[in-house]
Amino acid sequence: MSKHASSSVESAVDWLKRHGSKAGREGMARYNIPSDRAFGVAMRDIQALARQLGRDHALAGDLWATGWYEARLLAAYVDDPARVTSAQMDRWSRDFDNWGVCDTVCFVLFDRTPHAWVKVEKWAVRREQFVKRAGFALLWSLTVHDKASGDAPFLRGLRLIEREASDDRHLVKKAINMALRAVGKRNAALNATAVDVARRLAAASDHTARWVGKDALRELTAKRSFKAAVPSRRQTGRGSV
After folding, report:
1. Per-residue pLDDT tens for 212-228?
2. Considering the entire predicted model, what is its pTM?
3. What is the spatial distance between Cα 74 and Cα 43, in angstroms, rounded to a whole number?
4. In a domain, 18, yes or no
5. CB-based contacts of 161, cutoff 8 Å, min separation 6
6. Which of 60, 107, 220, 222 could form a disulfide with 75 if both were Cys (CB 3.0 to 4.6 A apart)?
7. Cα separation of 1 and 52, whole Å?
């Protein structure tokens, strides 16, 4: 790391530290996010700092390396998706230790890279809790942010959902459920297939798969237009568990 890069990351971390609060750290507990490596900075302030800093791939890597919760969220906002490599995505995914970082990185950075669909299929079948959640978080996010793909990759995503729906870990099953609901809201054709998947899961012998199916089915069969199923950038990082 150069002296200039070191100064930049130190300045950013110092800014985050000054904008954190005890109340912010205590509030993280309500969302089951550990605060031992956190300052308690509001998401709106992290986003404001990201706008000041602009895109900076090198800085993002240095911020990630600090291990601070808010620094890693900031890294997701300042990194350049075009410069994110497949190896970087695997490396960062292995560092995920809470759903807040996992989801934010997927929703604002990883889903905009050219490697996103490969990671959906690779990560969705992994055993590690947050890597697996990341696979389904990516699928969830791509239902809105991928404007170019046809239905084929989303149909493959539905097969992954059906295959993995019996994973009873709370943070995994919630991500699978959200991905199922999101795919089913992308368009009418995918809705029909997602409803079929949800019905099969709702009738499954496994209690976790039944929950995933029944919970999704209520929303997928409601009379509504197909709207975005992913949180906005302002909402990302809060309340997605």
Report:
1. 999 999 999 986 645 54
2. 0.89
3. 9
4. yes
5. 136, 139, 176, 179, 180, 183, 197, 212
6. 60
7. 22
